[in-house]
Fold this sequence. Notes:
Layout: E1 2-6, H1 12-22, E2 26-31, E3 34-38, H2 44-52, E4 56-60, E5 71-74, H3 76-80, H4 85-92, H5 96-108, H6 113-122, H7 130-139, H8 146-155, E6 159-167, H9 168-178, E7 182-191, E8 194-200, H10 206-219, E9 227-231, H11 237-241, E10 245-249, H12 253-256, E11 261-263
Helix pairs in contact: 4-5, 4-7, 5-6
Amino acid sequence: MNLIIQGTDIQNNDLRAIAKLAQASQIDRITGEAFRMLNAQPHSDISDYCAEVSLDHAFVPAGKKLTDFGLIAMDMDSTLLAIESIDEIADMINVKPQVSEITQSTMRGDISFAESLTRRTALLKGLPQEALQKVYDERVRLSPGAEKMLQRMQSVGIKTMVISGGYTFFTDRVKDRLGLDYAFANTFEIQDGKLTGRVLGNIIGASGKGEILKRIRDELGLRKDQVIAVGDGANDLKMLEESGIGIAFHAKPILKEKATFSLNHVGLDGILNLFE
């Protein structure tokens, strides 16, 4: 196995200590924020050590290459984007605290996603449609490393997809901006230029995300082990289950428990460093 160590401030003494715990035969530098330890062995103290010094770690089979994959599927809010778009919309009409509370309950898995989205969208009733563009223009920020990660994935022929429990208004624009191959999300109902507070059609929640990923995976003729999925909350669980590699990105504990790898300190470009 290779042990990948990543962080924004990696000290040589920490690298040496981790390598000793892992009985690694060699330490290779990948970037200034990432190192690969060869022939590493799991040790119960490695996780605690890395947590103490704010480093991400991942045991990856030697020889696992980025080109082994054909599709990466990503959640949008707090994953591909560094914001929760619905919270930012709510902030425009002074209901952000109420919406944020529901959002956090959902990400922890306390309430169903469908119930959560229905309740949050209802709070936006009466919002003028043009306010959505204002949110996109002024509030939307990509997560660190997002563009670098996607450009590299696209350069080796990996298809890119965002599957969001948010809204098509944002996923469509993010898709165009980043050149994604696919984008799926929920749709606001709009009448007379204002949000009605309702969602059109079936809500894309946890199950929907998994179903969409499986459908696109099958359309592309890919095996499960050729797919990477990235998310941060409970509603991403089914999506990760339909992938060979599930990555919890700055995620809630419920997702970290089920993910193949967790990135807690570095950006999305940290995904690239996991593979040769």
